[in-house]
Write a structure and sequence with these properties.
This protein is mainly beta and 139 residues long. The protein folds into two domains: 18-56; 66-139, no CATH class. It has no helices and twelve strands. The chain has strands at residues 21-23, 26-28, 33-35, 42-46, 49-52, 84-85, 88-89, 95-97, 100-103, 106-107, 113-116, 129-132. It has a three-stranded antiparallel beta sheet, with no helix packed on it. A hairpin with a 2-residue loop joins strand 9 and strand 10 (106-107).
Length: 139
């Protein structure tokens, strides 16, 4: 009597692409940080999963507009680094200009760049020059 043994190997495939997230009807890319929609918490998207902070909200916070004049580039509405802008969070030093994040008169800074001021950061916390990965920051 003979026995036949079949050998097989199992190969596991992984999808190494980061998956997008959907929150409150908007789609975000993995790595994005965005307002939770309650006026004070923020959320992040990590490989298709949304995670939000759970801090208590002051009912007065929800009325704060994008980029309040007193601190135009300060974090607002749950954004950790810059102001909320059209449902997204701007980077540090960026301002919300007609629903689009901007660094001074230019577009928002790219990945690994920051929006810095040529001199001391002013009371409104706004910068005007993208620097870091794309070039040295002013000192």
């Amino acid at each position: 009597m003979f026995a036949v043994i079949a050998a097989s190997s199992c190969v596991l495939y992984s999808d190494d692409r980061d998956r997008d997230c959907t929150h409150l009807g908007r789609t975000y890319r993995s790595g994005d940080i965005f307002p939770a929609g309650d006026g004070c918490n923020s959320c992040s998207c990590t490989d298709g999963e949304v995670a939000c902070t759970l801090i208590g909200c002051d009912p007065g916070d929800a009325g704060v507009g994008d980029g309040a004049p007193a601190a135009a580039c300060a974090p607002t509405l749950g954004c950790p680094a810059g102001p909320a802008c059209n449902g997204l969070c701007c980077g540090a030093g960026e301002r919300c200009n007609n629903g689009t994040c901007a660094c001074g008169p230019n577009a928002a800074c790219g990945a690994n760049d920051g929006c810095e001021a040529a001199g001391p950061i002013s009371q409104d916390q706004c910068g005007s020059i993208c620097c870091g990965a794309s070039g040295p920051c002013p000192q």
